[in-house]
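Researcher: Here's my situation. A collaborator sent me these components and asked whether they could plausibly form a single complex. I don't have experimental data yet, so a predicted model of the whole assembly would be a useful starting point for our discussion.
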Amino acid sequence: MLALVDCNNFYVSCERVFDPSLEGRPVIVLSNNDGCAVARSNEAKALGIRMGAPFFQVRDLCNRHGVVVLSSNYELYGDMSRRVTSVLREFAPQLEIYSIDESFLHLGGIEDPTAMAKELNRKVRQWTGIPVSVGIANSKTLAKAANKIAKSKGSGVCQLEPATCTESLSKIPVGDIWGIGRRLRDKLAHLGISTAKDLAQAHPPLIRRIGGVTLERTLRELNGISCIEMEQPQPRKNICSSRSFGHPLTEISDVEEALSNYAITAVQRMRDQGTLAQGIQVFLGTNTFKENAPQYHNSISSSLPEPTDDRFTIVSTALRLLKQIFRSGYSYKKTGLLLLDLVPRHMRQGELFTQSNTESRAQLNRALDELNLQYGRNGVFLASQGIDRKWKMRRNQCTKRWTTSWSEIPTAGI
DNA sequence: TCTGGGGTCCTAGGACCC
DNA sequence: TCTGGGGTCCTAGGACCC
């Protein structure tokens, strides 16, 4: 038996913990650059604001209905997520963090999962301020479905048993099932499969022809046969860092500055997970939404002479690759890079023919890590990262880092 | 004016090996 | 006229997730 715990409207709920006046009001949180609505309170959903809606398309609606509009504050959400997880661990030591607001819990040996889930629900709310919903079943896909039902019921907890859940599945559109996106939904519709129940009762070989082994697994999971195991966290195989610019850029020097910063972010994440990159890919593009403007998109990759986690090598390689694909005369919207084929640090294979000063470089990198730990991110930075930061993303309505910065800690008045 | 960012897995097809 | 059989590795593209 396993449970899926999902935080309700997570980013909005985080904001409400530190500003209770948002309770009961329509609230949305925007993506980077204040671009799209990526979290909505129930009141905002009721107004018809869709997930991922570009903000400029709903701005008037928001003004008319007094919707509170916030920029995303990932430092806050990340920290709140860690707090929620630490409470969950008290209930189920074996857990898989699936995303910033969802975890699967292994419930082996728990006698009354529903009672436990109710207690978990209460405790997370009391200790972190975040409301959660719990779906319980014996496969991940069914637990996801149960979670959806728990959210709609308002009770916050729902358990599905394969033998008795046919009725519930008949009310769930097949496109709402985990693993079924728009394409598969449309393909299935042609076969007359429109609900989760239809899929659960379909002929497996037919389903395999339509959606391969992945979709057949979904079918079996809906019948309570667990095919998707609980996973332990694995180091990432690739790390990507990219951002749209706050304003379009035309000069290579500005793009270089932005790319240097994204490269440093990627290297930091790679160093944190203890891996080395064997290759690097850089990409660059104009704004695809501006159909009348000249468009240019390109990417280029290169393998590194030896696996490395050295800032200087990564940044200089990224900038060299950027020079190769940059064309002047375009208005650029976005750049970024991928660190490819990451391998564990201890599996490093040295270069045969060249003498590299690996050890002194490693020391320098470690010193920079420590300085940045002590003085904050970018306490020390490379000159190529720049100071102007013209490309910086827009974040006009960002709340404070209430839980991770001493200078922004909340104050209470009496 | 204004449209996010970061991932995973699977499959098919090409290039190559003996 | 007729042109083997069995494999690996890599890449691109498609589909999905939050």
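Model: Some features of this prediction you could bring to your collaborator: The mean pLDDT of chain A is 92. The longest strand of chain A covers residues 275-286.
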